[in-house]
Design a protein that fits this description.
Structural class of chain A: alpha+beta
Oligomer: homodimer
Radius of gyration of chain A: 19 Å
Strand content of chain A: 25-35%
Order of helices and strands of chain A: EEEEHEEEHHEHHEE
Distance between the termini of chain A: 43 Å
DNA sequence: TCAATAGTGTCTGTTAGACATTATGGA
DNA sequence: TCCATAATGTCTAACAGACACTATTGA
């Protein structure tokens, strides 16, 4: 992990907003730096791809690469007052089983520990960006196993979007987007009717692909 | 302008996609570098804001700062094969009267000269990003004088979005978004009924601001 | 049987897009 | 007058959201 002893490898830093669904809530990985808390970050190595570096950062903290990861727009200003570096935010998602190393922990998104104002703003910005592009990126599917119920999928969407969705409308939108395909398997989860399992199977559609619209409200 | 003789000021470059409306078409400023053509770029000075640097770049090329400008998401990889730099794309708009210096020229968006593949991809990406966020950023108004007709506004929207909009729907969306206010002036443009002049006057609205939706089609 | 969850059918208010109509200038 | 453009009203198909209903399991 980069600290004050680490040799400066480049002039840009990577800040990582790594998310995971744990116990039905969206969590963000936060590192403990001495007494303070901060988002995981790293100096970008000269010549290396930023995304590769961000994945390496995720691997250092959780032992696994992120299941999905993308860069955001660099915010104005530098990460630390002492540095002259440009900071590129990355947002990623990872499975709930990834246990972070000692100096980091998962925190519920709505109860994040104190972060530097710039980091907090950056995290919110990159999360908003994710939510705006959820209809284009298959993020939710990376947080589920290859076969999942539609209720599970909707739950992940709700956590990532930060709001409730409407069941019938969600399924209609899914159908219209040709994103999932039913399998012939069913899963019984305690009481209630068993749920059919689906797979992520985006199909190209004549006349242009149709993105999932989520103007949907509380259901 | 940065060239091989310029002292390296930082480890990041800025690439500028500067747009202007000229003769009813969207143009992009392209620089001539020796025999080749390329997007204007600059090394980011250590410690300086990227946006300030991008505006300085626009001023160097056109004599004026961009009327609107924002950063995009850095693409993977470097700008030049020989450099190890990270490249941050900027997209901006400027007025049609800005004449570029000798080693640069406006080119219609649909007839851009040959660019390096990475630059071409970056330009398309940042333009797509602009189009996705047009409903949030008041870009179009920066390309018009303070008083404008709704036909002019619609035309700018169409050029920036790259598609035709529907007149009645456009005006309905504008009204719903509370973005413009009518003045008591009218402009007669040759033949036909004079058009009322409007001003950009975004009003906060109880219950959350409503963004302009443009699912509108050919009109 | 009841409870709980999955899945689906139907209705309605909203609205994007199309179309028609009126208004108002210049030629 | 005719034509061109501005501005507005109306209609319709599509659809988001709401609601209700059926289906299928376990307790």
């Amino acid at each position: 992990m980069p600290d004050s002893n680490t040799r400066r490898k480049g002039a840009a830093t990577i800040d990582l907003v790594l998310c995971a669904v744990r116990r039905g809530r969206l969590h963000v990985l936060v590192a403990k730096m001495g007494g303070a808390t901060a988002l995981p970050f790293a100096w970008a190595a000269d010549g290396a791809s930023l995304e590769v570096a961000a994945q390496e950062l995720a691997r250092q903290y959780t032992g696994h690469a992120a299941a999905w990861l993308t860069a955001g727009t660099p915010t104005a200003g530098k990460r630390h007052a002492s540095s002259c570096a440009l900071s590129v935010p990355f947002i990623g998602v990872t499975g709930p089983t990834t246990t972070p190393r000692n100096d980091a922990a998962w925190h519920p998104l709505d109860r994040l520990p104190a972060l530097a104002p710039r980091q907090k703003a950056m995290a919110e910005l990159v999360l908003d960006s994710l939510r705006l592009h959820m209809d284009l990126a298959p993020v939710a599917f990376r947080l589920l196993s290859s076969a999942f119920t539609l209720a599970e999928l909707q739950h992940v969407y709700e956590l990532l979007l930060g709001r409730r969705l409407h069941k019938a409308s969600f399924r209609r939108a899914l159908h219209a987007a040709y994103l999932v395909a039913p399998t012939d398997e069913w899963r019984s989860e305690g009481r209630g009717r068993p749920a059919q399992l689906f797979q992520y199977a985006p199909r190209k559609r004549r006349g242009g692909h149709r993105s999932v619209r989520f103007d949907l409200l509380s259901g």
